[in-house]
Amino acid sequence: MKVYLETEHLFLRPLTPADAEAVFLWGSDPEVNKYMIYPLYHDVADVRAWLESRNPDDPDVYDEGIVLKSTGELIGSGGLTWHPERNAWEIGYNLRRDQWGHGYTGEMIQALMAHIQKTRPVEAIDGVFASENTKSRRVMEKLGMEYMRDTEFTKTDGSQTFPAMYYRRNLHQPASVCLICDRIDKIQQHLNPYFVRELETGYVVIGDHQRFEGYTLLLCKEHATELSQLAPKFRQAFLRDMAMTAEAVENAFHPDKINYELLGNGKGRHMHWHIFPRRAGDTPLPGPVWQVDDMYAGQNIPTLEKLNELRERVGAELDRLMK
Ligand SMILES: [Zn+2]
């Protein structure tokens, strides 16, 4: 997409074939190209051909020219590309070697994220870089991204394969995009009467409907769809917090069995645990809770007095388990 943006040190603008000479300065630099997926340029005519082949109106590709305000020079290019299969925007960039180390890449990505968010949700940003490329690792960490897993990539000409690292940051979403993020906002503003306790990775809340007495939820602090989208340490802690929430419900209500269910909600499918205390005969047929047709009946909305009692019972058990 064509973008015109100004940041503290930079202008971002579309690249055109007239930029070929400037792009060639970094496109032909073996140091800049070392960990890039595409091969080194040896001829400025190839750069021009590449620039002419691009579709500047592709809505899923924000790959902009980076101009240094103080000199007016084009010093690099980069941006974000939409990956629907991961529900994420992947970052990519090239910067002329004499401009490294000033934080320009992070400045460019932040500005583009803010720009894209005006018209589309940015639920996560991803980055893949060669493991030995510590400069890119620092860029990712400054953007708040976390290590997810090891991977690898091969240059498009097949000349080299690099061990690589996959980094990600899941982003909080506006209320209009995600019901779970909206509820978390309300908790933070002390406006959610169902809120019980904040844990390291999530918020414990009492279920809106109490068809199954003691029904409790754990809302993940990260706006993410799958466990695989959580950084390993956070994922471990999230599973531990889920087990602790369930144990608190178990201690508070002494059911015959707990049901644990990790569901998503809305367009972003923000994951959250449903913890259902179950008792023999509490559904017409043995099986999951969703068979009942009175789950959302008005009579199952707890009174404020009942809600406070449930919050206290679960909260007291959580306090005990967290000691
Ligand atoms: Zn969300």
Task: Briefly characterize the structure.
The chain is an alpha+beta fold and 323 residues long.
Structural class: alpha+beta
CATH class of the largest domain: Alpha Beta
Q: In percent terms, what proportion of residues is strand? A: 25-35%
| Rounded mean pLDDT score | 96
Number of helical segments? 8
CATH topology of the largest domain: Aminopeptidase
- Name the CATH architecture of the largest domain: 3-Layer(aba) Sandwich
How many domains? The number is: 2
Order of strands across the main sheet:
1-2-3-4-5-6-8-7
What is the straight-line distance between the termini? 52 Å
Bound molecules: zinc ion
Principal-axis shape equals elongated
**What is the radius of gyration?**
25 Å
Percentage of helical residues?
A: 25-40%
What is the string of helix and strand elements? Answer: EEHHHEEEHEHEEHEEEHEEH
Low-confidence stretches: none
Description:
- This protein has an eight-stranded mixed β-sheet, sandwiched between helices.
- 30% of the residues lie in helices and 27% in strands.
- The chain folds into two domains: 5-170, Aminopeptidase; 179-321, HIT family, subunit A (2-Layer Sandwich), CATH 3.30.428.
- The protein is elongated and about 75 Å long.
- The chain has helices at 20-27, 30-33, 44-53, 104-117, 134-142, 179-188, 232-253, 304-322; strands at residues 5-6, 10-13, 61-68, 74-83, 88-95, 124-130, 146-154, 161-170, 195-198, 202-206, 216-220, 257-263, 272-278.
- Helix 1 (20-27) packs across helix 3 (44-53) and helix 7 (232-253) packs across helix 8.
- The termini are far apart.
- With 323 residues, the protein is α+β, with helices and mostly antiparallel strands.
- It contains eight helices and 13 strands.
- Bound molecules: zinc ion (ZN).
- Zinc ion binds at residues 173, 178, 180-181, 223, 268, 270.
